[in-house]
Specification:
Elements: H1 3-25, E1 34-46, E2 53-54, E3 56-70, E4 74-86, E5 88-89, E6 99-110, E7 119-131, E8 137-150, E9 153-164, E10 170-181
Antiparallel strand pairs: 1-3, 1-10, 2-5, 3-4, 4-6, 6-7, 7-8, 8-9, 9-10
Length: 182
């Protein structure tokens, strides 16, 4: 074995060995009740909102609490999250860029893992949405996605539809990718 390969193997072993020991000392994922995650992605307007705005950035952070576990049907989480949804005004309109900050409380049903380890999920819940200026508005969201275990965390991806109860109703979809920490 040549010297560079030996040092590469030594460095990889030195980095991964403490991780596997730390993971072995942690409780199993099924025993942990709290998780947290962050996501970044795209917010795309729908309906009448789409005629005035273009897609832009979406980001959110959340805290989940495992409510129950069933061996066959997965488990349920109570998920509290906050999100930022920015849109870009169309060039021909004279309105400022639209932005909504939301706080939502969702029930999330995480299904049992597939053969590849993917854990699909469904979620829905009410929320409060704050525009860039003006009073807060009530709304709701529904989403679907998946979690892919990667060592001591999971990659999480999903798509959510948001509806804000304004006149006219504001609707948008978010697509996001994030990291879930157990």
């Amino acid at each position: 074995m040549t010297r560079p390969y030996f040092f590469t193997l030594l460095a990889v072993t030195a980095v991964t060995l403490p991780l596997s020991r730390a993971a072995a000392q942690r409780p199993a994922a099924s025993d942990r009740r709290f998780t947290y995650s962050f996501h970044v992605g795209l917010a795309h307007p729908l309906g009448t909102m789409d005629s005035l705005n273009d897609a832009n950035v979406h980001g959110d952070i959340d805290l989940s609490y495992r409510l129950s576990t069933t061996p066959i049907k997965g488990y349920f989480n109570l998920k509290l999250y906050g999100g930022l949804n920015q849109f870009t005004a169309e060039p021909f309109v004279t309105i400022p860029h639209e932005r909504w900050i939301n706080a939502s409380l969702n029930v999330q049903w995480v299904l049992p893992p597939t053969g590849s380890g993917l854990r699909p999920y469904l979620e829905l819940g009410p929320g409060i949405y704050w525009p860039k200026s003006g009073p807060s508005e009530k709304g709701w969201n529904v989403g679907v996605g998946g979690q892919i275990p990667v060592g001591v965390f999971a990659m999480e991806f999903g798509v959510d539809i948001h509806s804000i109860q304004t006149k006219p109703v504001r609707r948008f979809v978010t697509a996001q990718l994030g990291v879930l920490f157990h």
